[in-house]
Amino acid sequence: MAGFKKLIFLQFISWLLFSAVGSFFVASSFDSAVSKAQMSAQQMVSNYIQEKTMTDMTPEHIRLSLSNGDVFSTFIVRDFSGQNILQLGKPTQLPFLADIIANSFNSIRPQFAVNKTKDIKIEFVINAQSQASLLQQSLLLMLVISALVAFIPIFYMQAIYKKLNRNVSMTVANAVDVYITQNQVTESIEEDFNTGKVTELGAELAPSFNRLAHFLKSKQEDIKSAAHSIKQEAYKDVVTGLGNRNMFVEYYEHQIEQANNKSFGTLAMIRCSELQMINQTRGYQKGDEYIRAVSDIVKHVSGTYTGSQVFRLNSSDFAVILPNVPSKEAEQFGETLQARFTQYQQNQELASVANAGIVSYESGKPLGELLSVVDNAMSMAQSKQANAWHLQRESDIVNNVGAGFGNQNWRRVIREVIDSRRVNLMMQNIMPIGKNVKAYAEIQSRFKTEDNQMLPTASFLAMAEKLEMAIEIDQLIIDSSLELIKTRNFNEKFFGINVTASSAHSDQFVIWLERRLLKDGNLASKLIFEVSEFGLQQNIKASKRFIDMVHRVGARITVERFGVGLTSFKFFRDLKPDFIKMDASYTRGLEEDKNNQYFMRLMVDLAHRIGVSVFAEGVESQEEKHIVETLCLDGVQGYYIEKPKEI
């Protein structure tokens, strides 16, 4: 397109030059013709007046002798002294273009003639109208013809260019269609454009399109590589760098479930039992460190088995695939894991680390069925002891009732704990900030099996609530706490006891708790019952009934894990709790998070206006404690302040 514009420009310049040269030659011809006409007219006038006298110079005689006036524009007769005796005609205006040229060349000038006696002097200007008209017609004709000669090819070439462009576009489009069609079924680039159809469309384009095909093929490989990298990132767990659940499902389906060759092996599920507790009491950063540590242990132990694969399925679960590992070797895997978990537990002063459920698999077995079996194995492991593992064999599942076997085993373990009252009570103090602030010590529970092995607390309480046994567990904890307080004679201390939301909303539990507290009326004022904010929100009417009862017997209420829900302060004004305990997620990184600082300060101001004290939990460092103090909270709790200890 740029070349075509250049052509138009050159044609236009050529036309201007040709017009200028042509105009010059036409003007020169006009000047020459006018000069000849003037010389002829002067010769004619000189011959006419040679023998004439003044009396012969009449208008009629002059017109008769010197034509009818078409030859001269003006004709002036003067005497010997130069006075005008006679003047014929008037100066005529030439056409516009002729007038410009005549003035430029000074072509038409007055002419003079004198007779022999020199008593008659003639001055005349010829009439050049005919030459001027001819000049103007010639100029216009020359300009028009030159313009046609110059611009007709442009319009013609423009039409050719459009047609050529359309043909090229169609050729390229058809060639691309052929390329796309061929590349749907072939990988040969060299033969993509060697068909007769493409050659007919434009043989000159084939080499270029072959180069384009090579380029697109290389880009396709780059895209495939990038897509693979993106897929790997999308299938990767951020904290541990392991493959996530999607990668696990894809691996199992392609390598095991849909495998052509017969294969067998072991699938192990590892569940981190203390993640929730660590997140709440030590902060999410510690929780991530805990997960990475468990991941490292699992990778180290499984790395001794050829072809092993490790995945992180969700926040607390890992999956390990051990190809070609029979049940006997799987038991050794479980033993090694338990030993490593126990060692880490002792180093980190945890109640437990993780449990493992182990099952065997064969190729072709659906993943959903296998996960159901391994989940049963996990339930069995959790009901044994800290860091326990359980290998689920086919012979263990009788009459295909495996789906409920794990729950039944948990129910047995929880019932045995309740009946045997095997609960250990720990205590963690809340440090008050300020002289007039009243704080208390939170009582925390640990549970043991009949073999005196510690059960994972979070799993135990979750299963108790799932199996609708939480009320009995809460009753066991409260009874044990009251008995311990009486026997230890803690007259000056105040104690916080956790109550599940399901118990707080149960009329049967509320009636039992009121009677129990009235029985030991002197201890009721020493107790503070902690219920989660989320739990209270589930049934506001029942929550208010529970809190009113607690206040009626002289005890107090703490709303724990505050800030994770959407409860308004109108809700707290109606329920009238005594304390709120900010969720540990607000304490994590508090020294750097200005938003959390602002939120906590706002909560403190609002809570103090309605007479509620505010505690912070999960304080893990000196910096966090300092920030909490500057935000005017009433107390702090966490591993930096004090670790849980036996009462």
From TrEMBL:
Keywords: Membrane, Transmembrane, Transmembrane helix. Residues 263-394 form the GGDEF domain. Pfam families: EAL (PF00563), GGDEF (PF00990). Coiled coil: none annotated. The keyword RNA-binding does not apply. The chain crosses the membrane at residues 139-161. Residues 407-647 form the EAL domain. PROSITE patterns: EAL, GGDEF. SUPFAM superfamilies: EAL domain-like, Nucleotide cyclase. One of its GO terms (molecular function) is cyclic-guanylate-specific phosphodiesterase activity. This is Diguanylate phosphodiesterase. It comes from Pseudoalteromonas luteoviolacea DSM 6061.
